[in-house]
Design a protein that fits this description.
MFS_spinster-like, globular, mainly alpha, 494 residues
């Protein structure tokens, strides 16, 4: 039996964990997989993979050059180029709540294994694409695959991290976002620039393959459960919920009627969970700030190297942007998590921290784009990134601790849906459309960066919200305290 933070809620181990399992090993595996996910996102945004559109139809008086990379090979406009980013996000946001709902019945580790297998096949498909619509399809499929991981990984970390280091552990995991994107810039620039953009996708697929296999062959890891949910967990032990591979589960997919009923049941569950989440003011305000933040960061990560090359004539924008983002990402994310643990891991403190960091980051990044020379831009933008990335641990801490523990997968899934469907899904094509119209990357970047001030306003205002005792302490909130916790949210069977 484990006592959560020495407070009232006791947590118990309901099943035996596999022999390989320790919290530290689990953290390392999840961080490496998360890193690979974001390397892919950085790679497709790099000049080596994404490329540039040529002007082969130019007149003799112009400087003629051929296009390269995805944009050059498929002759994509900036808007169509931005659609590639949005296609990935559409797949991610559609599938995230589905995987979260399935996690109520099926084992989390098996679902992650399925997702990573799809990811491996989808990145291979990206490398084999023959045109715009084929790569749009495979980018959407990569998003579908990644949904299994983003919805289910963080609850494991929050569950097994030492209480005094919970935010720090989450920060290590979320540090893989900027670091992975930055490494993707470098990886895409080097591999795509020297071996071709298709090879970059082939190697990604190969690197993820061992983790996809591990997700299937390894014995599952199980989340802890609250003592009052132990009876519900016991029901799962008695096979009163369908298991992956059992006769009842298999028959679902053999009968059209059962398949339809299963889909309807999952859809109703998602709708019910979303309704409950939207009643939580802490969760809603957290999401509003996160949406504005992701609107900017998503477009930064996709168009960053292109902007650097256009405004500051960078010779190696992939490597330069990648290097500064790695530095700011690691330092900012880790320092942000450690700082919140030091200040006190409470929801109001986290909101104040988010508001201050996002405001300072917005001012620095906005000012950076006003300079016409490279050195002050790099210095100000790097420091601005440091403050922006310092928010990653605290914002996800609030997301996890604004809901009942059993609802963390669906809270993270809906977080993924909301920050993407209203954030970086529209931002990349929208900024591409603005740029196609005004043909000035500096102005486009300043317009984009100004949205960060909305994020600061939303987050800081969250510190004034009334917070339940369970939310302000290390305990989770009582989102569903009035309802009996649903056993199906506990891990399912192998």
């Amino acid at each position: 039996m484990a006592i959560e933070d020495g407070r009232r809620n006791e947590y118990v181990e309901t099943r035996e964990q596999p022999a390989w399992f320790t919290p530290e090993r689990m953290l390392i595996i999840l961080c490496v997989v998360n890193l690979l996910n974001y390397v892919d996102r950085g790679a497709i945004a790099s000049n080596g993979v994404n490329g540039t559109l040529g002007n082969s139809t130019c007149s003799g008086q112009d400087d003629c050059f051929e296009g390269r990379g995805i944009q050059g090979d498929f002759s994509l406009s900036n808007f169509e180029d931005g659609v590639l980013s949005s296609a990935f996000m559409v797949g991610l946001l559609i599938s995230s709540p589905i995987f979260a709902e399935l996690s109520k019945t099926y084992n989390h580790m098996r679902l992650i294994g399925i997702g990573l297998s799809i990811w491996t096949a989808a990145t291979l498909g990206c490398g084999l694409s023959i045109g715009f619509w084929s790569i749009v399809f495979f980018r959407a499929l990569v998003g579908v695959a990644e949904a299994s991981f983003v919805s289910l990984a963080a609850p494991f970390i929050d569950d097994y991290a030492p209480p005094e280091r919970r935010t720090a552990w989450l920060s290590y995991f979320y540090a893989c976002i900027p670091v992975g994107v930055a490494l993707g810039y470098v990886y895409g620039g080097v591999v795509g620039g020297n071996c071709g953009w298709r090879v970059a996708f082939f190697l990604e697929s190969l690197l993820m393959l061992p983790f996809a296999i591990f997700g299937f062959v390894s014995k599952p890891v199980y989340l802890k459960t609250k003592r009052e949910d132990a009876n519900s967990a016991a029901l799962l032990e008695k096979d009163e919920y369908p298991s992956v591979g059992d006769e009842e589960s298999s028959s679902i997919w053999r009968s059209p009627v059962k398949t339809w009923n299963f889909i309807v049941k999952q859809g109703k569950g998602i709708a019910e969970d979303l309704k409950l989440l939207m009643k939580e003011s802490v969760y809603v305000v957290d999401m509003l700030g996160y949406i504005a933040y992701n609107f900017v960061i998503g477009a930064y990560s996709y168009f960053g190297p292109k902007v650097g090359a256009a405004i500051y004539q960078m010779k190696n924008p992939d490597i330069l942007f990648g290097g500064t983002t790695i530095f700011a990402g690691i330092l900012g994310t880790v320092v942000g998590g450690l700082a919140l643990d030091r200040l006190g891991s409470t929801v109001p403190t986290a909101f104040r921290f988010l508001g201050i960091c996002s405001f300072v980051g917005a001012v620095l990044c906005f000012t950076a784009f006003t300079f016409s020379t490279l050195l002050p831009f790099i210095i100000l933008f790097s420091v601005g990134e440091f403050f922006l990335f310092a928010t990653l641990g605290p914002v996800n801490f609030i997301t996890l601790h604004s809901v009942h523990p059993n609802n963390r997968p669906i809270a993270l899934a809906m977080c993924t849906v909301l920050i993407h469907i209203f954030g970086d899904v529209p931002s990349s094509p929208l900024i591409g459309l603005i740029q196609d119209h005004i043909q000035n990357w500096r102005t486009s970047s300043l317009i984009l960066t100004s949205v960060l001030f909305l994020s600061a306003i939303f987050w800081y205002s969250g510190s004034w919200l009334p917070v339940k005792e369970a939310q302000s302490a290390d305990q989770p909130s009582s989102l569903l305290e009035s309802n009996k916790p649903r056993a199906a949210l506990l891990p399912g069977h192998e």
